[in-house]
Amino acid sequence: MPKVPLSPDLIKFIEGQPIYFVATAPLSTDGHVNCSPKGGTGTFKVISPLKVAYIDYVGSGVETVAHLKENGRIVVMFASFGSKPKIVRIHGKGYVREAGSLEFRDISQHFQGSLRGARCVVEISVEEVSTSCGYGVPLMQYMKDRETMSSWLASKGQDGLRNYVRKKNSLSIDHLRGLEGTEVAF
Asked: What PANTHER family does UniProt report for this protein, alphabetically (predicted)?
């Protein structure tokens, strides 16, 4: 059942989920479809019923960024692993706001807390919202956010992160353009 824009009850559901998944695909049928888990308290924000955004941290791949730069198509999925089953999908057009840009500075003001390790913020114009029952999703208990990323970022330092981004995030596995620069919020 398509729904646009995000309703208050769906926004409340989204804000209560500790994990979400983003999926993108290149235009080429020979390219690799990508699905990435995302999470961490405060990393996803509903800016308005028709605009959402999430912090994209330094990582070993750059598929989502490359696909968005090529065609902008994205879906974000939230699934309840608690006692009330539900799945929400946000389909939209995604825009990459790279660290160090004016767009990054503007959109990042919507996030509270540290942006340390952010290579960009993905801003999404909501085109369609769909829900499904989630009856087949297992019950699981959330424990806490991982602390591994903070330790890894600290061990790399600013220059180490820039070198890492240059090496790992300039091209996707399909050789699509990834990040333009090497700026990382630190």
From this structure: PYRIDOXAMINE PHOSPHATE OXIDASE FAMILY PROTEIN (AFU_ORTHOLOGUE AFUA_6G11440)
